C-alpha cells in the first residue's frame, strides 16, 4: 500500500449472510458502476481535505455512523475508506488516483483547493466513477462538466445571515452592544481560508443583515485565521492590543476560531467584572455550545454535520448500488445539489 493511500478509517462491515439486500429494490444492474453490487458489497472512498479539522471530522463520523445503520438494515457489506489529505492537494490527487485505479464505486471529495475541482472531475469522468463533493463547493462551471458530479452542503450565505440575525436580535432585544454609544457597532472579523465559499459569503452576509436593518457598522480589522483556534487566538490578542477597548463584537466564520477568540479574551481578563465582548461563530461544535451556556459566546449557527454525513452516505449508497438507502433523506434536492439547512443557536435554544 502506498504511503499516500494510508487509510485513517476503514469500515468493513460483513453481514451474516453476505448478501446485499437492496430494500425491496432490484436495480443491481442499473448503474455501470455496480461492480460493488455484483460482488454484494459497496466500496467507496471519502477523501477529507484535513482530518485535523473538527467540523470536517464530525461529517466523516456521521458518514460512517449512518453506514453502520444501513448495514444493520440491509445486511450487505459496506466498505468505506476515509483518507486524510492533510491540507495538501498533491497528496489528495494521488489518493484520488489510487481510488480510481482500484475501481472504487464512488468517491466523496472534500477538496483541498477548490480551483483543482476541474482536474479532478476530468479524471473521474474518464474513469466513470461518480463523485460527491462536500463542504468545499466547486464553482458551477466545474459542477456542470459531468452529470455524475454532485454537491452536498449548506448555503454559505444563509449561515452569514443567521449570524447577522443573532446580533440584530441582541441589539433590538436591548443588549448593550454599542458600548461607546456612538451609534456605530465596531467589529472585528475572523475569516476562514481565503477563497472558501464559507469565508466570503459568511463575512459578507452577516454584516449585510445589520446594514439592511439600518444599523451602522465599522470594521476595525478583518483577517484570515484559516479556520484555526490557535491562529484566531493570536489575531485577537493582537487586535485587543491594537484597539484597546474599542472592539464591540467579534464575528467569526466558524466556531473553532470563535473559541480561539474566547481564549484570547480570557487571557486578557475578560468574562469577569462584567467585562465581555460578544462572540458569534458558525458550526455548533460541542465546545461552542458550552461557551454559549457559560455566557462566553453570544451564539452560533448550526452547520449540521450529522445531516450532511447522512446525506453523503445516502448518495454514495445510491450511486454504488443503484438503490435508495433505507435511511430517510428529506432535504432540498434538485438531483445535483443537496442543501442542509442551518439553524440559529443561542442560549435560549440550548436551555
Ligand atoms: C466550514 C466550517 C469550518 C471548516 C470548513 C472547512 O463549513 O464551518 O469550520 O470546517 O468548512 O472546509
Description:
With 351 residues, the protein is α/β, with parallel strands linked by helices. It contains twelve helices and 14 strands. The protein folds into two domains: 6-153 and 304-340, Response regulator (Rossmann fold, 3-Layer(aba) Sandwich), CATH 3.40.50.2300; 156-302, Rossmann fold, CATH 3.40.50.2300. It has an eight-stranded mixed beta sheet, with helices on both faces. Helix 4 links the parallel strand 4 (106-109) and strand 5 (131-134). It is elongated. The structure holds beta-D-galactopyranose. The site of beta-D-galactopyranose has 13 residues, from helix 2.
Produce the secondary structure layout:
Blueprint: E1 7-13, H1 35-38, E2 41-48, H2 54-74, E3 77-84, H3 89-101, E4 106-109, H4 117-127, E5 131-134, H5 140-143, E6 149-153, H6 156-172, E7 184-191, H7 197-212, E8 216-224, H8 229-243, E9 249-252, H9 255-267, E10 279-280, H10 286-293, E11 299-302, H11 305-321, E12 332-333, E13 337-339, E14 343-346, H12 347-350
Parallel strand pairs: 2-3, 2-4, 4-5, 5-6, 6-13, 7-8, 7-9, 9-10
Antiparallel strand pairs: 1-3, 11-14, 12-13
Beta-D-galactopyranose binds next to helix 2.
Question: What descriptive keywords fit this protein?
Answer:
12 helices, alpha/beta, 351 residues, Rossmann fold, 2 domains, eight-stranded mixed sheet
What can be said about this structure in brief?
With 351 residues, the protein is an alpha/beta fold.
